[in-house]
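Propose amino acids for all 244 sites.
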């Protein structure tokens, strides 16, 4: 059962994207095919670019195939895509492709209707907002820059992914973010639809709320014993220490 009227006095809110601020279906049905169609060109024509070269080497390391060619790496990326595997090199290459797609106007991101007004209100109330997603930082930046409501990056104080913070189901990743932001663990609130991520955040001393939206992959599974909300409107967040 959804718990209404959740109230938190914190300094910052850290946001997951898929299933939390935005529909997983948009990512799977729009962004995944867009990247799949462009992996081959990226791997063959731009392999010398630093981000691409680093991702290629990471794929080779993860698959223990140091001599894997572009075709083999593309096959691996597509297999990971089918598995929805949160592999850092996959997310890095998707970030390159999606950032360029957003910049060209091929793509516009998705946010649930309750999200943007609530983010603006929290920001205006003196709360810092951060993003922690399995998608790369470049993809996150493109996502918030190219929203249906316009450029939202001014609302966000920092972006974290599996490369600069670590895996999302490990408490150490959340401790690393707390140190990076300078916000004490007990003054951080994490919003996500995935129970394993919520468990890890709580183990690191954070507050955590599970977001359960009908139609999302984790809706039926639920969020374990965490507080839960169906929309951001059900969460009251304030910052008693704000001077704004």
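Proposal:
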């Amino acid at each position: 059962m959804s718990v209404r009227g959740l109230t938190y006095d914190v300094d910052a809110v850290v946001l997951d994207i898929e299933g939390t601020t935005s529909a997983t279906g948009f990512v799977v049905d729009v962004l995944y095919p867009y990247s799949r169609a462009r992996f081959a060109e990226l791997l063959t024509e731009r392999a010398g670019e630093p981000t691409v070269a680093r991702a290629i080497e990471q794929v080779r390391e993860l698959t223990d195939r140091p001599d894997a060619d572009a075709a083999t790496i593309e096959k691996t990326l597509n297999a990971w895509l089918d598995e929805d595997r949160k592999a850092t090199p996959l997310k890095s290459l998707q970030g390159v492709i999606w950032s360029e797609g957003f910049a060209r106007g091929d793509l516009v991101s998705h946010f649930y209707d309750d999200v943007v007004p609530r983010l603006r209100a929290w920001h205006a109330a003196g709360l810092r907002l951060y993003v922690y997603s399995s998608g790369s930082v470049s993809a996150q930046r493109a996502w918030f820059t190219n929203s249906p409501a316009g450029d939202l990056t001014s609302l966000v104080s920092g972006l974290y992914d599996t490369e600069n913070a670590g895996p999302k189901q490990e408490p150490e990743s959340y401790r690393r973010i707390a140190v990076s932001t300078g916000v004490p663990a007990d003054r951080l609130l994490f919003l996500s639809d995935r129970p394993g991520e919520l468990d890890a955040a709580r183990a690191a001393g954070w507050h955590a709320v599970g977001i359960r939206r009908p139609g999302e992959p984790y809706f039926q599974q639920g969020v374990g014993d965490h507080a839960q909300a169906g929309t951001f409107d059900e969460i009251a967040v304030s910052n008693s220490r704000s001077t704004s």
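The CA atoms of residues 7 and 236 lie 5 Å apart. The longest strand covers residues 128-132.
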